[in-house]
Each structure stands twice: as structure tokens, then as C-alpha cells.
Amino acid sequence: MTEYRRYQGKSYMILKDHVKTGGFEYRILLKQTIRGLLPFQIAEDNGQKQFWYEISGKAKLHSIVLPAALSSKPEYKKLGKYVYGEVELEEGTRLNAVVRGKKATDQA
């Protein structure tokens, strides 16, 4: 799961759930020597490791897919207006994301 959060005046993209710490990929990420990767911090919440990437909070929405129900889970009903789309962060990373506060008929 990816979460976006403001904390102490900064914007963060937080990767949860699928953080694997046993492989060589994790050790490479810890060294942060790959040019072009966003710097991150590792946090732990209830024994679960999380990657916190500091981002500007600014992004371009490149494409929109008409929204459908994410899941039948009750917590997703609280999202309100949202669309799926390809988002490019100001830092250059592109990812698929759920953009809250927008619906497909809104202007960008």
C-alpha cells in the first residue's frame, strides 16, 4: 500500500505492506547509491517496516482511468471523489495512483 502524508511541514510517499527486508535489493536500497532513486528513510510501525520518501507534493496527472470500486472494504467508501491515473512526481518518478478529491468529469 502506498500512502501520502504531510508530516512536520514536509510531504512523504510511504510504502507499506510489500517492504521485503531479506534480499539483496533491500541492501542495495540501504546504501542509496543508485542515481535517480529518491532518498528515503526507514521507519517501523508495529513491527512493520516502511519506506518514507520525501517528495515535493507536486505532480502531473498524465492519464485518467474512470473510477470503479476499489474494493468492497468499508474503509474505501470513505475516499469520496477519486480517479485512477498515471502520476509523475516533480522528482521524476512515474507511478499509478489513486488521486483523491477528483472525479473524471473535473478539470485538471
Helix content: 10-25%
Domain module tally: 2
Low-confidence stretches: none
**Tally of DSSP helical segments:** 2
Report the C-alpha radius of gyration, rounded.
15 Å
How many strands, what sense, and barrel or not for the largest sheet?
Answer: 4 strands, antiparallel
Termini separation? 25 Å
Question: What structural category do the secondary elements indicate?
Answer: mainly beta
Mean pLDDT across all amino acids: 75
Strand order of the largest sheet: 1-2-4-3
- Per DSSP E runs of 2 or more residues, the count of β-strands stands at 7
Question: What sequence of helices (H) and strands (E) makes up the elements?
Answer: EEHEEEHEE
Beta fraction? 35-45%
Write structural notes for this entry:
By secondary structure, this protein is mainly β. It has two domains: 2-55; 59-100, no CATH class. It is 11% helix and 44% strand. Strands 1-2-4-3 form a four-stranded antiparallel sheet, with no helix packed on it. Strand 6 (82-89) and strand 7 form a beta hairpin.
Summed up, what is this model?
With 108 residues, this protein is mostly beta strands.
Helix and strand topology:
Blueprint lengths: L1 E6 L2 E6 L8 H8 L8 E6 L2 E8 L3 E7 L8 H4 L4 E8 L4 E7 L8
